[in-house]
User: What shape does this take?
Amino acid sequence: MTNILVIESSAGGDASVTKLLVGEALAGLLAANPAANVTRHDLGLNPVPHVTAENLAGLRGEPVTAAEKATRALSDKLVAELKAADVILVGAPMYNFGVSTVLRSWFDHVLRAGLTFTYSEAGPKGLLEGKHAIVIEARGGLYSEGPAKEIDFQEPYLRQLFGFIGVTDVTFVHAEKIGYGPDARAAAIDGAKATLAAITAVAA
Ligand SMILES: Cc1cc2nc3c(=O)[nH]c(=O)nc-3n(C[C@H](O)[C@H](O)[C@H](O)COP(=O)(O)O)c2cc1C
Assistant: This one.
């Protein structure tokens, strides 16, 4: 059975472009594979806690306190979901040229030495294999081309994070110029929907 892991990371609620497009993409994936199993996290509503001095040892080190043990348990659960996933569908708003802090926090919990990557003489090696990630990026401006391309710290960063754990098959779908007015917003959404329809028909 195909396992689909959905990670949403917008704080935008009903007005969120990525939420709309993730819904569209998920419907397409399920149409192509009705028996798929879906695990879903809306980090904008239910964030994974940020790493602090109180919980760090849950991720790196030996958990001792209740907070550290709770963090270890959550991280183990999130890693298990990721390992089980065949398709990872991510809604990623651009916040201040990068990813939202809640999405970064999810990555903090799933990049675990010995579980999703390992260090060797040859350097770090990702331990996940055979997964396809679809990352939907919404931006107020235009970054996929033109003068702002070099300040897009979102897409290269996400490519690095996924690649580091072995997820190298990543398809990025853009909805850009969301802040340029209603017509530009509608055109961006329509364009992303058309791209997603083609991708999801063969992805699951
Ligand atoms: C805190 C915050 C920071 C943002 N930073 C940027 C930015 O650096 N560049 C940009 O083009 N748009 C930026 N935006 C606009 C969002 O990328 C845009 O509204 C996008 O649609 C957000 O995704 P969502 O609709 O799924 O929430 C920002 C929005 C917020 C709320």
